[in-house]
Amino acid sequence: MLAEQYKAMLGGKSVIRILSEFAAKRGEEIGYENVFDYSLGNPSVETPQAFTECCIRLLQEKDPMELHGYSPSLGILSVRKRVAESLNRRFGMNYKAEHIFMASGAAGALAHAFRAVTEPGDEIITFAPYFPEYVPYVKQTGAVLKVVCADRESFQINFAAFEEMMNEKVMAVLVNTPNNPSGIVYSKETVKRLAEFLNKKEEEYGHDIFLISDEPYREITFEGTQAPYLSAFYPNTISCYSFSKSLSLPGERIGYVAVNPACRDAETIVNMCGQISRGIGHNCPPSLIQLAVAQVLEETADLSVYERNRDLLYGCLKELGFTCVKPGGTFYLFPKALEEDAKAFCEKALAYDLILVPGDTFGCPGYFRMAYCIDTEKVERSLPAIRRFVRSEYGMEHV
Q1: Dmax over Cα atoms in the chain, in whole Å?
Q2: 182: which DSSP letter?
Q3: Is 395 left (phi over 0), alpha (psi -120 to 50) or beta?
Q4: Residue 21 CB partners (closer than 8 Å, separation 6+)
Q5: 220-223, long-range: CB within 8 Å, 24+ apart, which pairs?
Q6: According to DSSP H, which parts of 102-259 are helical?
């Protein structure tokens, strides 16, 4: 007999993936260079040459068993040590290798973090707009995901709604900053207020409340914006990181869990991650890739491309009358659609070979996401298509 829960999921395929597949199929008809595909957050800038050279050097010089054998359950010790040292140097922390668990990307890191701090029936709170895969990620743990409605003026945390939703069953709060899909970076004031609130609630409820920080876009911030490192503000923070965006390595599935040393059970949580791996199969990410990223921890791809793309699109959308909070990072824009039904808006855009993702799946109906991790030349060519779309479908008043 087939497992009904996974069979049922076949009918709820990711809207992002559906649109990405549509774009690929349309590209076969007219040439993909003529499809303005803003659907999928797949990094578009080249991996740093330093990473490539490091992989080549390792393959030439290292023992094949060291490169291709299973790593220890918690990750290669020398890699964990280098990650800890880098975080300490950059953010003024005091991690040791014992506080780091190597994971298969941020998704793998989150899978471990959720299971380490919740039991079935416990609640995890997150904030709209949010990455839609959080829903299956949390559901499969047996915990319950609760979503706080968005502050649509700023996309910072809606504290009034958050405080109303908070209760004793909440064991973790999940945040994503810089944020997918809004591109917003939580301010230091927001993070301080969040930490103060959670400290107060821990004392009131008499149990730990963990802050799980999903950080794959941590390195992608634009001029004038700084992303606070959340573990520096709240002791019970678990950082979940991926090198997918900073080094343009999404296919390598490499990241880590970093448990704040100030957390009472920090080392226990990391050791638990090794046991969680036994049950979910997210164990032992590739040894070669662990060793390679350890040599380029503070390198990045040319992330400035994303800021140029943001400026082009944001300027065009504002000119056309869209309401949009200006992103401080990532490679996403999250404007308000020109009609109440964002799904209908995005369907109309398809006729102009514009692939946009409605915001319903991100917990914000009426908005849409643009993943502008594409070549700048293609962004520039998309602007006339955007103007034609608005002019034809919504009238000259928006031009």
Answers
A1: 66
A2: T
A3: left
A4: none
A5: 220/178, 220/245, 220/246, 220/303, 220/306, 220/329, 220/330, 220/331, 221/178, 221/185, 221/328, 221/329, 222/306, 222/307, 222/310, 222/327, 222/328, 222/329, 223/307
A6: 105-117, 134-139, 159-165, 188-205
Domain range spanning residue 23?
Answer: 4-46+301-398
Is the pLDDT at 360 greater than 50, yes or no? yes
Are 72 and 94 part of one and the same domain? yes
Buried b (16+ CB within 10 A) or exposed e, 218-250: bbbbbeebebbbbbebbbbbbbbbbbbbbbbbb
Q: Which of 251, 273, 293 is the last residue of a domain?
A: 293
Average confidence (pLDDT) over 128-149: 97
Asked if residues 326 and 385 have their Cβ atoms less than 8 Å apart, the reply is: no
Q: How far apart, in whole angstroms, are the C-alpha atoms of residue 277 and residue 289? A: 18
Domain closes at, from 259, 293, 327: 293
Statement: residue 193 has pLDDT above 90: yes
Q: At what angle do helices 304-319 and 376-394 cross, to 10 degrees?
A: 20
Calculate helix-pair angle for 342-350, 376-394, nearest 10 degrees. 110
Are 377 and 306 found together in one domain?
Answer: yes
> Domain check: are 339 and 236 in the same one?
no
Residues 207, 349 within the same domain: no
Amino acid at 304: S
CA distance 81 to 199: 29
**Residue 156 burial class via C-beta count within 10 angstroms: exposed 0-12, middle 13-18, buried 19 and up:** buried
Q: How far is 119 from 131, CA to CA, in rounded Å?
A: 22
Whether residue 145 sits in one domain with residue 53 = yes
pTM for this predicted structure:
0.95
- Indicate the SS3 state at residue 136: helix
Give the domain CATH number at 144: 3.40.640.10
89 has a pLDDT exceeding 60: yes
What is the per-residue pLDDT for 281? 84
**pLDDT confidence tier of residue 398, bands split at 50, 70 and 90:** very low
Question: Is the domain of 99 the same as that of 10?
Answer: no
Report residue 91: phi and psi, to 5°: -120, 10
Determine the pLDDT at residue 5: 82
